[in-house]
Design goal:
Bound molecules: prephenic acid
EC number: 5.4.99.5
Order of helices and strands: HHHHHHHHHH
Pathway: Metabolic intermediate biosynthesis; prephenate biosynthesis; prephenate from chorismate: step 1/1
Organism: Quercus rubra
Number of strands: 0
Main location: cytoplasm
Subcellular location: Cytoplasm
Length: 298
């Protein structure tokens, strides 16, 4: 059990997935989706692709993931709150012994596990216990992280953040009966948030590789505050908050063929998106980074 000293609770770790390949600096090209790179035939090429991971390339991936997250929120905002989706007594049959959303996420994850989703170390299940094995041929994902990374899964925190704090900020109150679609939209949001937040493992690996002499004393001293200070870039965080608010305005505006576009009315409130990043996504990404770094010398 990984104990995460955060405001929310800890989560059972999944089994180890992969072993480490160390990174070097000065790559030729930014490679955004680092963990989904195919392992090429030639080991030389494999090495150069792994070497392509830099802080800059990871930041480009995080910027692209902003689009996915904002679109997923816009899709969820099509539906009102639809509270029966979250009510454990809504389905009073043995089929679902929990809420509809819990069942939809858990059963979808079981199906996606069989289809190989969690063989990719970018993916983290919300219900990792008793997942069925993959039935698809194994794929050689590029191995980038230090092996203990596999024990870090903060999806319980992400789940609580999403349902207890975030949802009420952007879903309008009401009930239109579309509970299954609502749960499916929640799953898409959760998976996008989880992927983004757990990217902190990669960001931490690159930061460690670039400045190991700065990080090692803090890791050995298990000094969380010092690690947090080392890995924080306030100017980057400010830019992220501004950019996601702007994207929410652009992606979420009403578009008409007349010149009377109501630009002040957005499908998801840009200030909520900015707050989501400032209060939860970036702090959780930094928490993942600290957890990763604490295990980096194990
Ligand atoms: O870009 C980085 O350096 C990151 O670590 C990512 C991130 C983020 O979550 O967006 C987190 C911490 C930094 O303070 C800035 C941004």
């Amino acid at each position: 059990m990984t104990t995460i000293p955060f405001s929310l609770t800890s989560f059972s770790p999944p089994p180890p997935l992969f072993s480490s390949v160390f990174l070097t600096s000065s790559p030729p090209n930014p490679i955004p989706e680092v963990l989904t790179l195919p392992s090429p035939q030639s080991p030389t090429k494999l090495q150069s692709m792994a070497n392509g991971v830099t802080l800059e390339s990871l930041r480009l991936s995080l910027i692209r993931q902003e689009d996915t997250i904002i679109f997923s929120l816009i899709e969820r905002a099509r539906f009102p709150t639809n509270s029966p989706t979250y009510n454990e007594s809504y389905v009073p049959t043995p089929t679902f012994s929990c809420s509809l959303v819990h069942s939809v996420v858990k059963e979808t994850e079981a199906l996606q596990a069989k289809a190989g989703r969690y063989a990719n170390p970018e993916e983290h299940p919300f219900f990792p216990d008793n997942l069925p094995p993959s039935v698809v041929p194994p794929y050689n994902f590029t191995e980038v992280l230090h092996p203990p990374a596999a024990s870090i899964n903060i999806n319980k925190d992400i789940w609580d953040m999403y349902f207890k704090k975030l949802l009420q900020l952007f879903a309008a109150p009401g009930d239109d009966g579309n509970y299954a679609s609502t749960a499916a939209s929640d799953l898409v949001c959760l998976q996008a948030l989880s992927r983004r937040i757990h990217y902190g493992k990669l960001v931490a690996e690159v930061k460690f590789r670039e400045s190991s002499e700065e990080y090692e004393p803090a890791i050995r001293a298990k000094d969380r505050d010092a690690l947090m200070k080392l890995l924080t870039f306030e100017s980057v965080e400010e830019a992220v908050k501004k950019r996601v608010a702007k994207k929410a305005m652009v992606f979420g505006q009403e578009v008409t063929l007349n010149n009377d576009d109501k630009k002040e009315k957005y499908k998801v409130d840009p200030s909520v998106v900015s707050r989501l990043y400032g209060d939860w996504i970036m702090p959780l990404t930094k928490l993942v980074q600290v957890e990763y770094l604490l295990r980096r010398l194990d």
